[in-house]
């Protein structure tokens, strides 16, 4: 039985990867941070009581800023594969917490590689590093591929650039099997609530149900290559099953504006939204509401632009070329954007219908805090 250790197991990708590895018969260990409230909701459906025999899924407390903790856990688990998904992963927030982001996303990667080396596991343990299309930043070439020069545009991306190169360096210096997956944006119903896709699908559902009036967004012109997290964790696993360690771009090859994502999300609920105005004055207005279940009259302004969501330096266009992954890993995405949007909107609709029932029954409903 193969043993895997996942950092960032409580995040979006961590939950999908855990599902995948358990389904392949792995014993899965994960590192989770101590928090004042439970933070393992995404893993609840996979929980195994540690008091029972033959447990294949175990969580350990830890943090990428703590070397001794990483060394102890890796020594205990003796993993065949490590997936380093742990990160301060929000680009906008990295401008507020640049030093912490560098520590976790950059130096944290070094701590993990060095722990494997110090423990003499360089020949046993294969490592996946969660690199990112944010490395491409300011457009140098489209579509972006493995050979495209990097030009990071945020503290997050600069920290991940260090993570990328230290992974390459440990591979070359010590012969470690260590790969970078240069993953383009991937989303799902498990996506964090403050990333733009989930912010939009949550708001669309809440607006349709009469629980929210408006959605405030930043740069509507930004273009992203959005895939589904379920497809992307499959690529991570495939990268660690090859004869030699290499770096791969994982993307769909299709790019879409934030504005278009908004249109698609509302359309999934039968609400047609059209945009007018320019820059900060741009508005998204309901043209028609075709589903009798939802009462959002034509003419209602449901989207406004708010400068607070702009970034000091933006990544305007991402579109990836996954040819290498297709040829060498046999990887292809199963989801396209409409299927992704549908799944996310329907999932959020299900979540917020509970709030709508509560409100109908006269119960106060909590205001969800998701900026
Ligand atoms: P999430 O933000 O959903 O999850 C991040 C995980 O990292 C969480 O489990 C979080 O724990 C954990 N974490 C944060 N800080 C620390 C720390 N100091 N020590 C240990 N763990 C920590 O991200 P995703 O699942 O979306 O992404 C997974 C990885 O892939 C990240 O490294 C991200 O940067 C990268 N990536 C993501 C892409 C995407 O589109 N999703 C694209 C390209 C790369 P907690 O739950 O306690 O906050
Ligand atoms: P990104 O994802 O920065 O690409 O990083 P995010 O969803 O945060 O932003 C995508 C684009 O949408 C624009 N945008 C907004 N973004 C947010 N979050 N909130 C808004 O209100 C808003 N309005 C417009 C952004 O400016 C941006 O252009 C994600 C993360 O998962 C990273 O960890 C990962 O490395 C990259 O994807 C690939």
Give the helices and strands, then pairings.
Elements (H helix, E strand, L loop, with lengths): L2 E5 L4 H12 L3 E6 L24 E5 L5 H11 L3 E4 L6 H6 L1 H21 L7 E7 L22 H20 L3 E6 L2 E2 L8 H13 L6 E3 L5 E2 L2 E2 H11 L8 E3 L5 E2 H10 L3 E6 L6 E7 L11 E5 L17 H7 L7 H24 L11
Parallel strand pairs: 1-2, 1-4, 2-3, 4-5, 5-6, 6-11, 7-10, 8-15
Antiparallel strand pairs: 9-12, 13-14, 14-15
Helix pairs in contact: 1-7, 2-4, 4-5, 6-8, 6-10, 8-10
The site of NADPH dihydro-nicotinamide-adenine-dinucleotide phosphate has 27 residues, from helix 1 and strand 5.
Organism: Hymenobacter ginsengisoli
Family: Belongs to the NAD(P)-dependent epimerase/dehydratase family. GDP-mannose 4,6-dehydratase subfamily.
EC number: 4.2.1.47
Q: Could you explain the architecture of this structure?
A:
- The protein is of the alpha/beta class.
- Helix content is 36%, strand content 18%.
- It is built from ten helices and 15 strands.
- The chain has a seven-stranded parallel sheet with strand order 3-2-1-4-5-6-11, with helices on both faces.
- Strand 13 and strand 14 form a beta hairpin.
- Helix 4 runs parallel beside helix 5.
- It is globular and about 65 Å long.
- The chain starts with a strand and ends in an 11-residue tail after the last helix.
- 45% of the residues are buried.
- The mean pLDDT is 97.
- Bound molecules: NADPH dihydro-nicotinamide-adenine-dinucleotide phosphate and guanosine-5'-diphosphate-rhamnose.
- NADPH dihydro-nicotinamide-adenine-dinucleotide phosphate binds next to helix 1 and strand 5.
């Amino acid at each position: 039985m193969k043993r895997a250790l996942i950092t960032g197991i409580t995040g979006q990708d961590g939950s999908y990867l855990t599902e995948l590895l358990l389904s392949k018969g792995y014993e899965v260990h994960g590192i989770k941070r101590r928090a004042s409230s439970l933070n393992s909701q995404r893993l609840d459906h996979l929980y195994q009581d540690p008091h029972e025999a033959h447990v294949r899924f175990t969580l350990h407390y830890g943090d990428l800023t703590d070397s001794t903790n990483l060394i102890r856990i890796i020594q205990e688990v003796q993993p065949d594969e490590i997936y380093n998904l742990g990160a301060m992963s929000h680009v906008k927030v990295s401008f507020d917490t640049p030093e912490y982001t560098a520590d976790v996303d950059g130096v944290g990667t070094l701590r993990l590689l060095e722990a494997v080396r110090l423990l003499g596991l360089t020949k046993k343990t294969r490592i996946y590093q969660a690199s990112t299309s944010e490395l491409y930043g300011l457009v140098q070439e489209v579509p972006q591929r493995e050979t495209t020069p990097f030009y990071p545009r945020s503290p997050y991306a600069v920290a991940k650039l260090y993570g990328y190169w230290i992974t390459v360096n440990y591979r070359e210096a010590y012969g470690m099997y260590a790969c970078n997956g240069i993953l383009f944006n991937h989303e799902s119903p498990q996506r964090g609530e403050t990333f733009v896709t989930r912010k939009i699908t949550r708001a669309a559902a809440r607006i349709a149900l009469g629980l929210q009036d408006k959605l405030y967004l930043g740069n509507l012109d930004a273009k992203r290559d959005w895939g589904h997290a379920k497809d992307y964790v499959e690529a991570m696993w495939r990268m660690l099953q090859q004869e030699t360690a290499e770096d791969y771009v994982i993307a769909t090859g299709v790019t879409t504006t934030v504005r278009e994502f908004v249109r698609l999300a509302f359309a999934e609920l039968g609400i047609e939204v059209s945009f007018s105005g320019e820059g900060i004055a741009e508005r998204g207005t309901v043209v028609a509401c075709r589903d009798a279940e939802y009462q959002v009259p034509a003419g209602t302004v449901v989207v406004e632009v708010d400068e607070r969501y702009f970034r000091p330096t933006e990544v305007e266009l991402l579109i990836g070329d996954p040819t290498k992954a297709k040829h060498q890993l046999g990887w292809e995405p199963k989801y396209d954007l409409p299927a992704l949007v549908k799944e996310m909107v329907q999932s959020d609709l299900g979540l917020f219908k509970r709030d709508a029932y509560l409100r109908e029954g006269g119960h106060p409903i909590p205001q969800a805090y998701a900026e």
